Request: fold
Amino acid sequence: RNTNERDRAYAFAAMRAADEGDSRARDFVDKIEDLDTRNGVRTVVDYNYLQSLISKKRVDEALQLIPKVSLTHTLRAHLMTQLAALMANTDRDRARELLNEALTEARRIDAATAERAYCLLALVTEFSKFDQTRGWELLSEAVKASNAVASFTGEDARTTVTVEGKFSVRLTTELAAPTTLAELFVNLAENDFYQAVDAGKTFSGDAPRALVTISIARAQFDENRSAKSVGQK
Reply:
């Protein structure tokens, strides 16, 4: 009946289409008349649409779109990291390029923020699958970023973006799984146990340091117990 109602209808149509991976999502955004609302909704729609493409493994479409969208450094780094992980077994060269692009984005995130720390941890995890040496090199950078955040625990990687306009929209996403830090150090310990232990000690926060230490110890205990069981048989 009026501009406000039409803008709201187009906004919700765009967000629903984005969640379903429907290419009309961005067209609906363009129909929103209020500029602030249009720009804010575009951020949410572009992120959710790309996330949907990645979850559906529509890699080519995601690769074509990701350079064109306007997203925060945090969201762009997160999406690129996920896309690289998805391509790891099909196109390792392109996946490695994406990881390097994601690293550039992560380094643009404001220092002393949890977003920077978690994006770097996710990247170290993926880089380690391609090149253990590069993974170890980036680990110190990730730990340094983590130490700059007093509240960093290693388990709460959620971030929220609030966009304003005629109405507010909150976008909450998880930059890394609650188990990412623990699993990363378990995998690193398989490569070099003592180096992983020493690296874990460089966390200044009690929570991440304890999490890493316990994870490594538990993995080592399970490995020793399995080896003992095999020996007894």
The mean pLDDT is 91. The beta strands are 158-163, 169-174.
